[in-house]
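Can't paste images in this forum, so I'm doing it all in text. The chain is below; anyone willing to post the predicted C-alpha cells underneath?
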Amino acid sequence: MELSEIYQKERYGVLGDFSPKISFEIFPPKNGDISSLFEELRILKRYNPVLVSLTYGASGGLNRFSYEDLKSIRDLEFNLMPHFTCVSMLKDEIEKHIVAVENLGIENILALRGDIPDYINPEELDFFHANELVEFIQAKTTLSIGVAGYPEGHIESKNLKDDIKYLKKKVEKGASAIFTQLFFENDKLYRYIETVENAGINCPVIAGIMPVRSLKQIEKMTSMARVSVPKKFIEKLEKFPNDSIQIGTEFAIEQCQNLIENGVTSLHFFTLNHSDQTSEILDNIL
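Text version of the structure:
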C-alpha cells in the first residue's frame, strides 16, 4: 500500500475515538546478526504497523540491508519503506536499488539527504539536497516517496521558515508524506504542522517518536540535530541514571497520549531495534 493510501485520511486537531496509525524504523545490526532483528520484528508485528522503514548507510556507513535481508523481512508480511540517501548512494546505485525494491513488490521509499561524515567530499555526491534525490527517483519510478520534516528546523537551516522552503521543494518534486525528526516538546510539532499547512503543503505529517534509553543518547541527538529537551526530563535522567530506560518509556507514553488527545493520528517509532521499550509504550497508549 502506498503512502498516499495509508495516510489519506489524516486530519489534525480533530479529537475523536481512533487508533493511531503505527509505524517503526529499524536499522541493520552492527554485528550483522539479522536473526536477532527478526525476533524484534515478530514482537512488533502484533501492533499491526502500517509500515516499517529500513535505514540505509547511516552517516555514510556501509552497514546496510542486503537484498536477501529485504526479502526476508518482506516475507514477514510487512509493508516496507527502505531509505534512499544522497550521502550513501550515487545515481547508478539508486537505479539498481530501485529495480531491486520494485522486484520485491515494495511500493514506498524514504528519500533523505543524510548526515555527511567528514571523510566524504560533498562535491563528489550526485545529489546534495533531498529534493534533488526526490526529483531523480520520481522520474525513474512509480515508487511512493516519503521525506523528512524537522519540527524545529534542520540544524543547517537558518530558521524554521527557511527550512520549510526546502520542504516545499521536496513536495513539489514528488514527495507524498512527511516523517518528522524526533522531538520532545509536542508544542513544537503542533506549530510545525500549522506552519506546513500555512505554506500550502498538503502532505500528511507523521510524528517521529524516539524512546530515550540514556542521557548519552540525548546528548548525541542534540549534537546532531536541532532538538529541544525539557529541563525536568534531563534532570530526572541525571538523578536516576540506572532507571533511564523506564524514565524514557514513561516520558514517551505521556508524549504519545498528548499527541493522540490533540488529534495526531500517526506515530512513527525510531525503535533503535529494541522491541521491549516500544512494546511497553504501545501497550499503554493503544
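Residues 12-16, 57-62 have pLDDT under 50 and may be disordered. The CA atoms of residues 246 and 252 lie 10 Å apart.
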